[in-house]
Amino acid sequence: MRVLSLVHQWDAASGVFADVVAEAGYELVERNVAEAGVPEERFGAVLVFGGAMHVDQEERHGWLRDENAYLRRLVEDGVPVLGVCLGGQLLARALGGPVRRMPSPEIGWHEVELTPEAADDPVFAGLPQRFDSFQWHSYAFELPAGGVLLARNERCQQAYRAGAAAWGLQFHAEVTPAIVAGWIDSSKPEDEDGPIDAERLRTDTDRHIGRWNELGREICRRFLEVAAGLTAPGATTRATSPRSS
After folding, report:
1. Predicted local distance difference test score (pLDDT) of residue 244
2. Mean per-residue pLDDT for 230-244?
């Protein structure tokens, strides 16, 4: 199976998800949509990652319009999609879900709680009921029509499923220690998200990142299992539209 990793900037790429794809024996194709646009070829599964841009900046980043249409088409065609942070927001927006700026950013390690609906989800079933998650975002999604809320915290909705094979995550389940360190090092007090407590963030990351990477790998592994099942010979590959489910 060929897996597309759709990234928006190279310092926010596939992370531990790339390792899971390789261990499963699949081919990972990383494509920077901001540089190369959306692909024309088909993939068995699509991962969509984060970026410093926002979903409502189509005038500044014209390729966002093409990505919006591309994500909507993937879901309509039943291609399994997993969006992370900006990727989850873009997926929600493509399916008609609101995405709004938060009163203040959510950056650092924050607890997330699964909803009762997560117990029946093929990706989230059996995950810890509560876990500390890595966050770095100032916008948040709301459910697209027909979507199922899978996780949340006091700040915002944190994960959903749309249709049979599309998932959006607000938390960064893919980050490695190097990715987090790079984001901290490149952060500036005048950035849009404001100043961060870099030392606390480094300390918290050292404490949590091992368990977090295990959880992120498990989420990706389960997603790929769903994708492999849907692309197997004889499988029904067209998912139920979230607009009508």
Report:
1. 31
2. 50
pLDDT at 194: 66
Which residues are CB-neighbours of 36 under 8 A, at least 6 positions away?
A: none
Token pair belonging to 45? 């599964």
The two three-digit tokens of residue 109, written as one number: 């390690």
DSSP single-letter state for residue 3:
E
**Does the annotation mark 156 as catalytic?**
no
Choice among 85, 137, 208, 220 that is catalytic: 85
- Categorize the per-residue pLDDT at 231 as very low, low, confident or very high, splitting at 50, 70 and 90: confident
Q: How far is CA 20 from the centre of its chain?
A: 15
Residue appearing with tokens 């995550």: 169
Selected catalytic residue, list 54, 137, 172, 208: 172
How far is it, in rounded angstroms, from Cα 73 to Cα 102? 28
